[in-house]
């Protein structure tokens, strides 16, 4: 057995130790720990960003209800802005806003 082959086997063993085995993966590859979506910053995917026109907003919070990424920030029942670390720029908030012409405009990321 050559030294190269021995080294390869030891590398393989090390990498196998670092990775969980198939028996350690939950059935269906399910993620069992709740609340971990917050750890994944998805804002980098965005092509368009929501921009609020505060003068137009009537704080009905329809956008908050519909946002699929929970990225509408609300304080004391009023919309305060967007969580741009997680907002994917889908534009749903802008579409569902009942104000004429929408209080949220989608602007192209610079
Ligand atoms: S653009 Fe989409 S993800 Fe971003 S705040 Fe609006 S609804 Fe939420
Ligand atoms: S849906 Fe429009 S009016 Fe209602 S809170 Fe959101 S931005 Fe404001």
- Which small-molecule species are bound to the chains here? iron/sulfur cluster
What's the Cα radius of gyration? 23 Å
What's the overall geometry? elongated
| SS-based class | alpha+beta
Give me the CATH architecture of the domain at 47-110, please.
Answer: 2-Layer Sandwich
Percent in strands: 15-25%
Helical segment count: 3
CATH topology of the domain at 47-110: Alpha-Beta Plaits
Order of helices and strands: HEHEEHE
Strand tally, please?
4
Average pLDDT, all residues: 88
| Approximate helicity band | 10-25%
CATH class of the domain at 47-110: Alpha Beta
Low-confidence stretches: none
Strand order of the largest sheet: 1-4
State the end-to-end CA separation: 58 Å
Biggest β-sheet, characterized? 2 strands, antiparallel
Summarize the topology.
Elements: H1 3-18, E1 48-52, H2 62-66, E2 72-75, E3 78-82, H3 92-96, E4 104-108
Antiparallel strand pairs: 1-4, 2-3
The chain binds iron/sulfur cluster (SF4) (2 copies).
Residues 50, 67, 69, 71-72, 82, 87-93 line the site of one iron/sulfur cluster.
């Amino acid at each position: 057995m050559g030294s190269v082959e021995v080294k390869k086997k030891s590398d393989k063993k090390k990498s196998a130790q670092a990775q969980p085995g198939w028996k350690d993966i939950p059935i269906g590859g399910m993620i069992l720990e709740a609340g971990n979506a917050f750890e994944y910053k998805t804002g980098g995917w965005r092509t368009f960003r929501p921009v609020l026109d505060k003068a137009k907003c009537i704080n009905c919070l329809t956008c908050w209800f519909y946002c699929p990424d929970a990225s509408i920030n609300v304080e004391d029942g009023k919309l305060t802005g967007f969580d741009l670390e997680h907002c994917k720029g889908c534009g749903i908030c802008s579409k569902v806003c009942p104000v004429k012409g929408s209080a949220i405009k989608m602007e192209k990321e610079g």
